[in-house]
Amino acid sequence: MKSIHAGELRAEHIGQTVTLAGWVGRRRDHGGVAFVDLRDGSGIVQVVLNPDNEPASDDVLHGLRSEYCIQVEGEVTPRPEGTVNRDLPTGEVEVVASNLTVLSPAAALPFQLDDRSDVDESLRLKYRYLDMRRGRMAANLVARSKAIRAMRNVLDREAFLEVETPTLIASTPEGARDMLVPSRLRKGQFYALPQSPQLFKQLLMIGGVERYYQVAKCYRDEDFRADRQVEFTQLDLEGSFWGQEDVLTVLEKIAAEVVRDLRGEDIELPLPRLTWTEAMDRYGSDKPDLRFGMEIVDLSDAFADTEFKAFTGVLGDGGTVRGINAGALGLARSGLDALTTRAQELGAKGLVWMVVEEDGSLRSPVSKFLSDEERGAIVTRLDATYGDTLLIVADATKVARAVLGQLRLDLGQPTGHDELSFAFIVDFPVFDVGDDGSLSPAHHPFTAPASLEDLVNTPESAVSKAYDLVLNGSELGSGSVRIHDPAMQAKVFEVMGISDEDAESRFGWFLEALRYGTPPHAGFAFGIDRLVAILQGEPNIREIIPFPKTQTGADPLTGSPGRVDESQLEELGIEIAPAVLESWAAAEAGDTPE
Amino acid sequence: MKSIHAGELRAEHIGQTVTLAGWVGRRRDHGGVAFVDLRDGSGIVQVVLNPDNEPASDDVLHGLRSEYCIQVEGEVTPRPEGTVNRDLPTGEVEVVASNLTVLSPAAALPFQLDDRSDVDESLRLKYRYLDMRRGRMAANLVARSKAIRAMRNVLDREAFLEVETPTLIASTPEGARDMLVPSRLRKGQFYALPQSPQLFKQLLMIGGVERYYQVAKCYRDEDFRADRQVEFTQLDLEGSFWGQEDVLTVLEKIAAEVVRDLRGEDIELPLPRLTWTEAMDRYGSDKPDLRFGMEIVDLSDAFADTEFKAFTGVLGDGGTVRGINAGALGLARSGLDALTTRAQELGAKGLVWMVVEEDGSLRSPVSKFLSDEERGAIVTRLDATYGDTLLIVADATKVARAVLGQLRLDLGQPTGHDELSFAFIVDFPVFDVGDDGSLSPAHHPFTAPASLEDLVNTPESAVSKAYDLVLNGSELGSGSVRIHDPAMQAKVFEVMGISDEDAESRFGWFLEALRYGTPPHAGFAFGIDRLVAILQGEPNIREIIPFPKTQTGADPLTGSPGRVDESQLEELGIEIAPAVLESWAAAEAGDTPE
């Protein structure tokens, strides 16, 4: 239906007769002649519709509205002098139509499709198929496809096998809730949708697949959280006879190839690596944004003998005094007080601010409580010069890191993603330590500890063979070396408080599999949407997903989820709970909102 | 952990010290020395474990059992004269171990892993990870990965975009039952899992994606049917400004590339095309196996004036007389009678068999009722010679086609798939005509009819722009040109008996989308598992799927589907129906089987 794509036309085609097909973009009328932007997947070209040499009737021509799908036959001609459009790849030519066919008319649009108009997101999602015709969304679809292809290209070269794992599975132990699928043939029983292919990919390693990957759809039924989707896609990979180093090397190749294919840029390899402790100490985050400095500095020892009560109390309780040099903020007193309020909202007891005066002295409400030596140490340690604002938190280590890490982002994080800063975070702790000292596993229980002895003796500080890849302050994915020894697996369950009985009922089939010559193995899971969103400079992953859901898991386009016929449920052997039916009845009666 | 893969070792490596890792295959002991097949993903090499030059203790050596995961360091040496194994790519060399490490021991195996032992399928599925270590399954996993890569390569070259469509969707109108997923955030409401991405890929066309593909997971909740899976994978593709010819051309390229990559063979293009009517008339099937002839021949006009009552009756009722030449079957009377029984089981009122005698006469119970002319016509039309068995059915056209088509397969279909015979079947009817003359749609209602006029006036014989790809008697996939005109869509719904109200409630959102300048488009869906199964010579698709389910949708490995905690259901606002709970209670009480 077309002899060439609209966006491919150039001066070299002048004189040729071409057939184009696409959509009507902007239209301008001058002296009875219509100039129409014809747009297809490749771009835009200007079409000249002159009733004098174009056989379509005036009716057609006058009725030709935005987003009509049309076919045009015509001659490629040079644009008249002075009308060449240098911003458009096809801007040197136009197509003078000799024939126009309306393939499909378009109803009045719910919103304008040019990229400049700002449209409410719920409207964009309801008419996603129109939203996709806009340049930005169209480019994002292409970028996503290219990113996945780049990943596959690397893994193909590295002799990975693409293997599909099932999606109707038994419940997996990933922490979040499983989404369930009732079985009709076994009424009252349920499949779960996978939160990840974790155990299946480990089975593949046991099965002798030495290099596995999959672009896997995963499901997480979480409560409201910004920028998460109930269904999402990850690049899942695993290798046997492999360790952390091997995994990170492949990840570097993937990151480099995707950036090259999407941005035409080379990133410097190897990527920087930070231990979890370093990342937390220097940036207050396990997904640090390394595009800027403003590092956190531990000042505790400078205040070992301080007489400033706020610090002595904290240090006496085993706390810490840390600070950042936020640079020349130039804030008035009210701005500085707002920072204190923000620090308190973030969980700190307080915030000490100091501004370096021209004479090197420190302007600060607490300055007078500090000795010359202490003030000097602050300036030296934070590398402070005239005009810099210094922010200091004295608190428990966990709080000081978190608060300063967030203030650092508030004050220093670049907008957009013109610069890219990848890094690996390694040596994650086995456990998250709660404020009350309670331990909760930081990773799934198949993650290998660095030392089983440490895990047993000092679980609160034990390190696991787990690693993350971060980019510009976002986690792109995480992985680990897995446990391949059934005895170690049993011990880890024990330390994690998972009873033998519990382990057996939750994943006995997997523990059985571990007994048959399991090779050492390690792997990773890569969040595709997040990576592409950052590379495309998009603020959220919904811009990268062709048909995303809202944050409550609804699809405004198709109206899912929705009610279903009772007969369907009957076949499945399930019923809607009476409380839900009552709430519907009440809503219908207008008693309460649904 | 390995310096080279086991299967890569050749004479050129002799003298090198290598590190290998893999599994213990067969083991032979001679004079205190153990000869162990070390197997990894690449193949097998013989390792010589001599306690004299190998530091592992006798304990390790004696304890080394089948499927232990081991690491071996040693020197590549030529095999002693007379022990070279020409059947093995590594058969010229062996590795004399200087170091042996057991990475992971293996428990006693539930079945032997050599390919020659025939293991019950349910046991193989329960221990799929061990089954995968066998050569046949390992090769199938590789073949599946290669096939999908070949498909992607073609589509990448043809500038297709890979786009992911959602899997938690609204109910789709595909005919089979939807699998449902209860929503927790909107209690009492459900998502459906997609039976295909049909409507979403059409939305992509409306959205301006001109070439789309996806390797898509689909779900069908069907009753027991051999060789079907509740979840399955299809290569889904669609293009706009495209017609049937464009689709078939791309499919030919895909078929050729997959066959080349998996078999190293070239198939002849273009592929043969038969209309549905031709296929039914000549082979009695819409998925004919074209590897052999034995075509069905219409003999009706030869019996226009027959006096044979069985034929006159059928022809008088608008029926047909058709036959096949089954060749030299050499069957005794009992064998011929068995064919008659088979024909009756298949739905025919009876079967006429005839055997061509040496003198050209026809031996048959009905021969005497036929005229010389009629007997002569049979021999001529069926191209019969001495020894041939001719089978004739006189019945309604539909029955005669189906019965002879199945007898043709029973008697002529080759075993295995050494030869490949692809074909397109085109011009499918819009409706399947029931025995009672009732019409039921043969395709989803978005399929374009060849002529709207025919559809309205003579629906029973109307043809649609639908096509299938078949291989060796199996359907690999189907596709069609879609309706892009909302008015035609409304008319088709009307003819199919779908009321406006029904259409609006089932896919109103899609009908809305059609109104915004929908381009003409067409597409296809390719059953990946079936294609790979045939190319691998496997009798069923479960051999191609890494973790398949049984025919009742169960997974013997993980035990899914299974019962879940009441608290999980409560969160979802659903309950198990009382009848199901009662049946469980009864089963537990031993009253009835569960």
Largest sheet of chain A: 8 strands, mixed
Beta content of chain A comes to 15-25%
How many beta-strand elements of chain A? Answer: 23
**What is the highest CATH level, the class of the largest domain in chain A?**
Alpha Beta
Q: Which radius of gyration of chain A do the C-alpha atoms yield?
A: 30 Å
User: Which strands sit side by side, in order, in the main sheet of chain A?
Assistant: 6-9-10-22-21-20-17-11
Please, how many domains of chain A?
3
Helix/strand class of chain A: alpha+beta
How far apart, in Å, are the first and last alpha carbons of chain A? 50 Å
Number of helices of chain A: 17
User: Per CATH, what is the topology of the largest domain in chain A?
Assistant: BirA Bifunctional Protein, domain 2
Looking at CATH, the homologous superfamily of the largest domain in chain A is Bira Bifunctional Protein, Domain 2
Please name the two chains that share the biggest interface, counting residues whose Cβ lies under 8 Å from a Cβ on the partner chain.
Answer: A-B, 121 and 122 residues
Overall spatial form of chain A: globular
Percent helix range of chain A: 25-40%
Mean pLDDT of chain A: 93
Q: Unreliable segments of chain A (pLDDT under 50, ≥5 consecutive)?
A: none
User: What multimeric state do the chains show?
Assistant: homodimer
Structural features:
homodimer, 594 residues, alpha+beta, OB fold (Dihydrolipoamide Acetyltransferase, E2P), BirA Bifunctional Protein, domain 2, Gyrase A, domain 2, 3 domains, 8-stranded mixed sheet, 5-stranded mixed β-barrel, 17 helices, 30% helix
